[in-house]
Amino acid sequence: MNKPQRLHVQFLCLITFFIGALQTTALAETEFSGGKTLFHGFTMFHDTVSGERIVVPTTPAAGKPWVWRARFWGHEPQFDLAMLNRGFHLAFCDVGNLFGNEEAINIGNRFYKKLVTQYDFSPRPVLEGMSRGGLFVYNWALANPDCVTAIYADAPVMDFRSWPGGRRAGKKGQGSKAWDTCLKAYRLSQSEALTYSKGPLNLLHVLAKEKIPIIHVIGEEDTVVPPAENTNIAELQYTRLGGTIQVIRKPGVGHHPHSLHDPAPLVEFIERAWKAAETIGHHHTP
User: Fold this and answer.
1) What average pLDDT does the segment 92-118 reach?
2) 231-258 in b/e burial notation, b at 16+ Cβ within 10 A?
3) The domain 30-277 is classified under which CATH number: 1.20.1560.10, 3.90.1170.40, 3.40.50.1820, 3.90.226.10?
4) pLDDT class of 76 with cuts at 50, 70, 90
5) What pLDDT sits at residue 109?
6) How confident is the model at residue 254 (pLDDT cuts 50, 70, 90)?
7) Cα end-to-end distance, the chain, whole Å
8) Minimal CA–CA distance to 78: which of 276, 274, 270, 263?
9) Comparing C-alpha atoms, which of 161, 33, 146 is closest to residue 99?
10) Residue 276 phi, psi dihedral angles, 5° rounding
């Protein structure tokens, strides 16, 4: 083959490669349901009926790892964007006012099944819960402990008596409206709620047995979701149970501002957990 012929063949190969790449991208972007829009420059599919969202990384990582975010979609997205840039998909289903109750878990189970069976996502997502989202990610993990790579919780509610109940040092949620909504979600009376013993802080041994790594970000002076009633108890218990838990404490901040300006510590923790989880093949379908 002479030089002009070789150049012609190389050109055809390049054209074929780029056409194939474009077709692959198109297929990747049309496999999800919902309308298509952008999330910080990434393609996002949003089903406005169900509230489900899926954000597609530019180059998906092998095994289709994903971050499953609960609550406050788009708020302080530093960690989400960092993981998208590392090839993780980002997913969300709306369980906002259910406070991690049984209905929320069932909604989550259906969402998980769809992503794992229809779209071939990893069977062990990273769970991300902010504030009341902590109740959902912890309760879903407790219901499906062998379907979780790691938990990242940010100022998480771990005892609804703390917030929105305000039955201890925590402030009562939104003039009691959130507390009333929480009681209704769990079908509990005020007195029943005060003796409720099936919350995350009561069942951490389930997660420790599965060796699920956990990382929290909290404000030391959070007066809404006080660490002393939530994260501090979890840290002490999980450590005693032999589990891996890291707590990043932000000093000098009230309320509970979320995330970190530089999410590198979170990203490094989750990437280590993902690499470790790759060696674990067992999981059940909720």
Assistant:
1) 95
2) bbbbbebbeeeebbbebeebeeeeebeb
3) 3.40.50.1820
4) confident
5) 98
6) low
7) 59
8) 263
9) 161
10) -70, -40
Q: What Å distances lie between residue 194 and 139, 160, 168, 186, CA to CA? A: 18, 9, 10, 12
Strand 126-130, strand 150-154: pairing: parallel
> What distance separates the 2 farthest-apart alpha carbons in the chain?
88
Helix 102-113 × helix 133-143 angle, to 10°: 70
Domain ranges of the chain: 30-277
The Cα 67–Cα 266 span in angstroms is 12
Which amino acid is present at 283? H
Select from 138, 264, 265, 136 the least CA-distant residue to 212.
Answer: 138
Give one DSSP letter per residue of 228-253, joined into a string: GGTHHHHHHHHHHTT--EEEEEETT-
Q: Report strand pairing: 89-92 vs 53-56.
A: antiparallel
